[in-house]
Automatic annotation (TrEMBL):
<feature type="compositionally biased region" description="Basic and acidic residues">
    <location>
        <begin position="98"/>
        <end position="113"/>
    </location>
</feature>
<keyword id="KW-0614">Plasmid</keyword>
<protein>
    <submittedName>
        <fullName>Transcription factor</fullName>
    </submittedName>
</protein>
<dbReference type="Pfam" id="PF19472">
    <property type="entry name" value="DUF6009"/>
</dbReference>
<feature type="region of interest" description="Disordered">
    <location>
        <begin position="79"/>
        <end position="135"/>
    </location>
</feature>
<dbReference type="InterPro" id="IPR046051">
    <property type="entry name" value="DUF6009"/>
</dbReference>
Length: 135
């Protein structure tokens, strides 16, 4: 699970809406945004692109002070791995990154080996071949 969200933050989610096919993405970033509506595509004010969002059920309460709803948004920034595979996140991933295959309504996405893609495994050095022993 992401350390930035908990399942209790997502109690009123009804469905996840993807704006593009996420099958080829190793990770997406997730964040809670305040929006004026429970449904429909929210405004997006970050760099990069929004790849998905959640819609809320009819019982989702608005914040009493602002009248806004807290909804999850999934996005990627220009320097993320999908745009720059050899860049900053060639190894590792941002803190809010989760595997999009693990995202479900009311459940925080998970970090997986695919989403986190750590350093390449180290291999043992090859042993020199012994063709023949002196006799």
């Amino acid at each position: 699970m992401s350390s930035l969200l908990s399942d209790s933050d997502l109690a009123h989610e009804a469905q996840v809406v993807w704006l593009e096919n996420v099958g080829g993405l190793d990770y997406v970033r997730q964040a809670l945004d305040k929006t004026p509506r429970r449904r429909n595509k929210p405004r997006y004010a970050r760099d990069g692109r929004m790849v998905g969002y959640t819609e809320l059920d009819d019982s989702a309460p608005a914040d009493p002070d602002s009248g806004l709803y807290r909804r999850r948004v999934f996005f990627l920034l220009p320097h993320d791995r999908d745009n720059q595979p050899d860049g900053l996140y060639q190894e590792g991933a941002p803190g809010e990154a989760v595997d999009p295959r693990t995202i479900r309504p009311r459940k925080v996405g998970e970090k997986t080996p695919r989403s986190q893609r750590g350093p390449a495994p180290l291999t043992a050095p090859a042993k020199p071949a012994v063709d023949s022993l002196p006799g």
